[in-house]
Amino acid sequence: MCIKNLLQTGTMPRFKTILVTGGAGYIGSHCVVDLVNAGHEVVAIDNFANAVGDDEGSPALRRVEEITGKKVTFYKADLLNKSQIGDIFDKHPIDCVIHFAALKAVGESMQQPLLYYQNNLLGMLNLLEIMRSHNCFQMVFSSSCTVYGEPKHLPITEDHPTGNITNVYGRTKYFIEEMLKDLSIADKRWNIISLRYFNPVGAHPSGLIGEDPTKEFTNLMPFMAQVALGKKPVLTVFGNDYQTPDGTGVRDYIHVMDLASGHVAALNLLSENHVGLKVYNLGTGRGVSVKELVEVFEKVTSTKIPLQYEARRLGDITAMWADATLAKNELHWVTKHTIEEMCTDFWRWQTMNPDGYPKKNVKTSVIVNGKSSS
User: Which fold has domain 17-373?
Assistant: First the structure.
């Protein structure tokens, strides 16, 4: 049986073995640090669609082992390959799944919608079927504030309407949330928390792990750091005519380590209560404009970042920030890091690793006809 009903003694958590999908990625690898430090045994999988891999596996997770001093079991695997994932469940007594694995670029999703629907929706369907067949019904799902669409009010609470999505990536998260809602109603064994992230930035304070995009820089802070390093001439800002104080888009930026601690808090709640399906916002509750973030980054790094304004991107919204009161009250989780710390930690990562993770013998995954190949 996958579900362990007896509370572990001593310092061991009730959920001992956690499967982390997308564990070699940016958020996944930082979450694994906190999971291991909390006493969990982690089995991580990744197909390297969004993460760097090599002949020995994941350089990010090897550095996680360096940070924690503990072993992380890793498999190069793809959720579109059901037999491959089933074999991993056969080998390990998985107590709970934290599901990060997904294609995640808003712009790319608008250009390749079928790729996003296939990878994100079919991958989740396969995972849920395999979990059910192995009597594993505990999950923390990596959702997104994009499910809210253009906000009707700010800050956004969890009861804000969802579904009026402005991009394909967000629609995949919304469809999955609806899928989980139906599943939890039909089968009461499921115990799921969906965490709606706002905008993760920063890096582990050691500088050993951080965000290393495998595709053209689509997230703001990696692009900004590349300009600060002189590897790119200017930072492209999409839109300076929004109805915001300085004309640039406003977001709720959250330190990736605060985000990681939110997953441990979610696991703790799942281990103590049967919630069916619960949704929580993970954000700071403060909106920061693109221009404001650039100015803070310049200040803490003593660099200058030239800006080049271009037209708004299809699918972007004006402003969004969270009301995370529910997570504070029920998960006993609050953010601890400031915008300055987010910029400082990311700059430490970037200057220690100007080219990201070592990329010798790099393996990349290409999804073709529903299968991942290297």
Answer: Rossmann fold (3.40.50)
